[in-house]
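Reviewers asked in the last cycle whether our approach scales beyond single polypeptides. To address this, we selected a multi-component target totalling 590 residues and predicted its structure end to end. The input consisted of the following lines:
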Amino acid sequence: MTLVPTLSTDLGLPVTGLGAGTPGRGRIVLVGAGPGARDLLTLRALRHLQEADVIFYDRLVEADVLDLARPGAERVFVGKHVGAHAWPQGQINAIIVAEARKGRRVVRLKSGDPGIFGRAGEELEVARAAGIPVELVPGITAASAAAAALGRSLTERGQSDTLVLTTGTGAADNPLPDCVRHAAPGTTIAFYMAVGQAPRITAGLLARGMPPGLEVQIAVEVEKSSQRLLRCPLGELATVLARNGVKGCALILATWPSQRPATTAGDTIDEERGSAPHLSQDPGQEGAMAQKVVA
Amino acid sequence: MTLVPTLSTDLGLPVTGLGAGTPGRGRIVLVGAGPGARDLLTLRALRHLQEADVIFYDRLVEADVLDLARPGAERVFVGKHVGAHAWPQGQINAIIVAEARKGRRVVRLKSGDPGIFGRAGEELEVARAAGIPVELVPGITAASAAAAALGRSLTERGQSDTLVLTTGTGAADNPLPDCVRHAAPGTTIAFYMAVGQAPRITAGLLARGMPPGLEVQIAVEVEKSSQRLLRCPLGELATVLARNGVKGCALILATWPSQRPATTAGDTIDEERGSAPHLSQDPGQEGAMAQKVVA
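The resulting structure, written as structure tokens, was:
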């Protein structure tokens, strides 16, 4: 018996908001759901789910996150699944305001942390323009979850004192992604939603002087049941992503250490990392350096 | 009645680890406690607190976080309070391994996210070297909590597509902190533990071309009962920190937008932000642009 099933099934919390809501108490709460597994929700996020009259939710990785909500809460999917109905941002903005104006307690449930690549700014703005109380509940962002799943730290005293979170995109007329200029010894870069940009990013990082043999780690669908963890030298990133069919929801981590001598092309990757409990050689990838999580 | 008191007082979870532990089941879990408020713990963190035989904890902002642990768990403070006993890192490394070797379930509870400026790397390394199973549980990092408290996003489509987390330190022989080179239009920088470095950081950012009138926000003791939120132009950062007696635990946020025209020295700060529910003019700071949270 663990806590999480208890919470989801029989906590017996008071039901505080039935029906159409009470004028004047309407509010909007942008809630970070974390990367997917429902036990990475915070207690604060849970409380808001249990107080909500209506929940507008993104592509939430593990569907049972919504089971934590108050049974009477209305649940509306507004996310972007492949092939599924997706709401334009303007329509989301309009409906959360309209619902709060009715006096309903609106939860806008977003993957990760709403403040990091979560487009929270637009929803905060429309709520404030409408005079509706709005609150943000932070969530575990994908870089933190990916590092934890990989069993590594994102910063390391004397080796990597700066962490850069970026999407790896840039102006179309720029031959290199804007983020490339952040690559330097002493820095860890976490690339969000950047799989499609991988060839361009790799070229940019190599042009910046990042060693092609440097280890890069990839957390695919982190904290979802489909989670996979891969690693390879920077120079093979695009190949490894393609060979493993990685698309969409993946986080790429690259640490360029400041102190230890940089590895160079052709160097063997430090295999000590492979002793981490989460990683092992992928038997389906003989000869490749990519590794997968053990199911 | 809210969920959190329920969890802390009468959940009645099974007590699974009394006494000296069972040989062979010893393990170490590095658990992120988030920024301070106990309702920003994740459900996973809570579960580990409730399964622990012994908990080694850092300076934890709200002491009642530990009330969430299993009543029978041993609690050992190893943090660095001003004037309080502090353990050297080597001693912490040694004792967590020794306790896990006895078969005890060790929780190492750290503020924020253990993977971001949390020295998780060293503890992971000693655990692995000793052959002890070790796991990381991510936590809400201070930048996410600060942004949520300030009611703002850390990224903004088209304005700030990259987020840099840094401590603002650098080699002693370098006149500028290493992080300064990350300052550029389109970037938000979050400075951790950088209050003492503020004059040096400000000089570096200004030298880099960041406009002195750009708004900087400061979250002091975020998500603790002593939380204060301040804002001021970049050029006044050091003065405002000193005037408000800000020391130690504060996060500084600076967004240099890529699209809108940069503000310049002497410009009035956009007062629209003041309409956020958390911020209001500080009556004790007439003439200053610093603002405080409303208690």
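The mean pLDDT of chain B is 80. We regard this as preliminary and will revisit it once experimental data from Aim 1 are available.
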